[in-house]
Sequence to fold (227 residues):
Amino acid sequence: MAPRLREIADGVHLGALAPAGLLHTVLLEGPDGDVVVDAGLPWSGGRLALLLAGRDVVEHAVTHAHGDHVGASAWLCRHTGAPLAMGDADAQRFEGGRIDTHSGVAGRLVLGALDRERRPVDRRLVEGDRVAGFEVLAVPGHSPGTVALWRADDRVLVVGDGPVNVSADPSAPRWLPLPRGLHHDPDATAASRRRLGELRPALVVAMHGHPVAAPDRWARATGAQEP
Fold:
């Protein structure tokens, strides 16, 4: 069966790029057309093509410039004709520098090896910009230019790398611990995650792991609330 997008909130669709919830792309229905958030690994093009067949993609937005999120970004923009948007602090690295912004050697060796095709960044996202009706939040740490997308009306939050929920039950998340070395700046990551926890989102849509619909548990996992 061909892969399909799954609508998990109003105008928010989740598409699996790897099994077991390990890697996703997200499609947001905006007022001007569809926005695809993150493009997965360099070899994700074929699956993205199936997921996006028949969609009117008007922009490709990136949560952060790591190889498992921008690996197929240049391909996606070429395939759809969509312009590319990403956090300002990551844009220069993506266009022509190194994107292995990990404090640990393992992260640099493994994810840095996914540093492949590039293209110019058409829009450099900063705090307060809008993407498909979502507000851009600057949450640096995992990479220098990491952003999240927040829709206050129904309290939906889209993140790239947050606490990873490995439970398919959104109301009962189970967290997968990740090494601090995967973050560019672990202390800044912790501060940004606390900020996202304080939002108390009704639904968290992440590129890694399953969605979370448990505001208290999300707040505890991000350090915004005591256990």
In short: The CA atoms of residues 85 and 202 lie 26 Å apart. Residues 186-198 form the longest helix (13 residues). The chain has a mean pLDDT of 93. Residues 6-221 form a domain with the Metallo-beta-lactamase; Chain A fold (CATH 3.60.15.10).
